[in-house]
Amino acid sequence: MSEDDDPTAIRSLAIHASDVLAALEACEQGTETVLRVTPPFNGRMRARIHRIGADGTTEGRDEGTGAFHVPPSRLVDDDAPPYPRAVDTEPEGEYDVETHHERHVTAVEEWREAVTRHLVNEVSLSTPAGEHRVDVAVLG
């Protein structure tokens, strides 16, 4: 493994909060999405949103590309609120599509705001040398 391919060189990952939120939402809607860190590796790396293909790796190192895939659920703490389901935002009484839509949009906006307060400060990457903890720097 060359020095540029050694993931233990990573000390911190920079992530955009909006990328984590978008990846969490995509996963809730059935699209496997991760935050991806691509080689060459150095001390400070950027993790970007990435949609997983049919044969892709959802967690850990993708042996084909050498990139690390971090599920968005690992970037929020255990106390993060769950994504609001449509059934949970149905209006009381007589059903109205517009009212339901407005309630759901509001619930999702509140969820997005709340989740940003639950982003983690560090995450572990599984490397050939074992678990490697790195700091997480949230952008935006």
Question: Which characteristics define this entry?
Answer:
elongated; 4-stranded antiparallel beta sheet; 2 helices; 140 residues; alpha/beta; 8 strands
In words, what does this structure look like?
The structure is a single chain. The chain has 140 residues and is an alpha/beta fold. It contains 2 helices and 8 strands, in the order βαβββββαββ. It has helices spanning 17-28, 97-115, and strands spanning 12-16, 33-37, 44-46, 48-51, 60-61, 68-70, 122-127, 130-139. The strands form 2 sheets. A 4-stranded mixed beta sheet has the order 3-1-8-7. A 4-stranded antiparallel beta sheet has the order 4-2-6-5, with helices on one face. Strand 5 (60-61) and strand 6 (68-70) form a beta hairpin. The chain is elongated, with a radius of gyration of 18 Å. The mean pLDDT is 92.
In brief, what are we looking at here?
It is built from two helices and eight strands. It is α/β, with parallel strands linked by helices and 140 residues long.
Helix content range: 10-25%
In what range is the share of β-strand residues?
Answer: 25-35%
Shape: elongated
What's the count of strands?
8
Radius of gyration: 18 Å
Along the chain, the helix and strand elements come as EHEEEEEHEE
Termini separation comes to 34 Å
Number of helices: 2
Query: Unreliable stretches, pLDDT < 50, 5 or more residues?
Result: none
SS-based class: alpha/beta
Strand order of the largest sheet: 3-1-8-7
Task: Report the mean per-residue pLDDT as an integer.
Answer: 92
Main pleated sheet: 4 strands, mixed
